Structures are given as structure tokens and as C-alpha cells.
Amino acid sequence: MQLVRETKNLVRLTRFGMVNCFLVREDDGPTLVDTGVAGSAGGIRKAAQTPGAPIRRILLTHAHVDHVGSLDALVSQSPRVEFAIGQRESRLLRKDFSLDPGEAGKRLVGFPGVKSQPTLLLNDGDRVGSLQAIFSPGHTPGHFAFLDVRDGSLIAGDAFTTQTGVLAAGTFKLLFPFPALFSWNCQVAAESARKLRSLKPERLAVGHGQTVESPLAAMDQAIELAFRQCGKMLN
User: Fold this and answer.
1) Which of 21, 144, 172, 189 could serve as 180's disulfide partner, Cβ 3.0–4.6 Å?
2) Separation of alpha carbons 160 and 192, rounded Å
3) What CATH class does 2-160+191-214 carry?
4) Cα distance between residue 40 and residue 171, in whole Å
């Protein structure tokens, strides 16, 4: 597992060159955002010990397999760890694929379910330590991003990717088609991307790709492309 220190508060952990999760420094111990694919628990725990404290809490951006893969292993080895996910997204942890009134999108795939039970269900604007929870659906029905209010770092989950340039969820690019293939609703995803851009983050940290400093211009281009592509698909 590759470790990259993005700021004094943020460490990116990357497996297989493309699957990221993040450690966020807090005074009472680090917060882990997402858990990577299965088999990542050992590397994550080792990285968390580097600052000298075990993982204090786990936040999930969403319930796809590459974000929850090591959750059960981490929770079973640290039974006192707090574990939070968005209230809407929590149903997908139980493989409950029912939709709320007014929701519509592609077939929901890539959700393996987990055994662990959340200790906290998040709503838009909630604070967990230094992280503000931002409801940003579209990639999945209950996707969340997390903004570090200390330095403007936005951990965007899969609302954006940067593998082949900054892309919003739902956008198709031949060299990296996954943001389109695995996103549930392109229109909602584009609207969420615009919401996240309105926060004016200092850096954009994502589930797939490198962290981007001063990302606003690139986010603007990604949002424009997302709305343009989605409009064509809907027409």
C-alpha cells in the first residue's frame, strides 16, 4: 500500500495504484475515510499507527465494494471504533436496493453488503471531528463527501475521479469508463458535483486518482462536461 502525505492532516493510502482511502489527523486519533478493497486492513492499520494512535472512527462515502471491502475486518479488530455512513446509504450496506419516492436511476450494482452496524447515521451538514459531511448523491443514492473545515480539503469519494483528469461521476471517458458505468444517476451526480464545487475546496481528494491542489477550474470543466453528456443521454 502506497502512502502519500497530502497535508499535515491528510494521508492518502492507495492500493493497486487506483483505489484510495484516507487518514485524517484528529487530536483524539485518526479518522479513516473509506476502507478500500478486501485485504487492505493490515496496511491501513499499519499506516494509522504511524502517527502513534489507532483508528478512532471510520466514515464511509458510500457502500460500493471498493470502499467497504475491509470494513468488517477493521471493525472486528477494533470493536470500539466508531463507524458512520449517510442515513440513505446505510440501506445499501444491508443490500436493500429499494428506492425512495422520487428516486430513479440505473440498476444498483457493486454493493456486497457488510456485517458491521453503523454507530452513527449522517445527514447533510453534520460534523464528525473536523470533517463536515456533505450529501452528494448521484454516484449512489446516498453518497457523502467530507470537507475538512481546517484547511479546505474535500474528500469527495467517487463524486469526482482524477484518473484521467478531473471527471464528475456519471461522465463517460473511453480511457476510464468507470465513473459512467458504475454511477446511478448522471443528472443527480452532476448537480452534486456543482454543490461540492460551491464549497470552494483548496484541494480535491478522490477515491480514484491523485489529489488535485487548487481544483476549482478543473472542477468547473468537469461539471460542464457532466451536464452536457447527461443532457444528451436524457434527450
Assistant:
1) 172
2) 10
3) alpha beta
4) 28
* Sign of torsion over alpha carbons 58, 61, 66, 69: positive
175 falls in which pLDDT band (50, 70, 90)?
Answer: confident
Query: In this structure, how many other beta carbons lie within 10 angstroms of the beta carbon of residue 165?
Result: 15
Concatenating the DSSP letter of every residue in 106-151 gives SPP------S---SEEE-TT-EETTEEEEE--SSSTT-EEEEETTT
Q: How far apart are CA 157 and CA 140, in angstroms?
A: 11
Q: Which residues of 14-31 are buried (b: 16+ CB within 10 A; e: fewer)?
A: bbeeebbbbbbbbeebbb
Domain spans in the chain, listed from the N-terminal domain onward: 2-160+191-214
How high is the pLDDT of residue 232? 61
The yes-or-no verdict on residue 18 having pLDDT over 80 is: yes
Model-wide pTM > 0.85: yes
Burial class (CB in 10 A: 0-12, 13-18, 19+), 101: exposed
Query: Given the DSSP bridges, would you call strands 153-155 and 10-15 parallel, antiparallel or unpaired?
Result: unpaired
The Cα–Cα gap between 206 and 137 comes to 15
pLDDT, position 204: 98
pLDDT at 235: 44
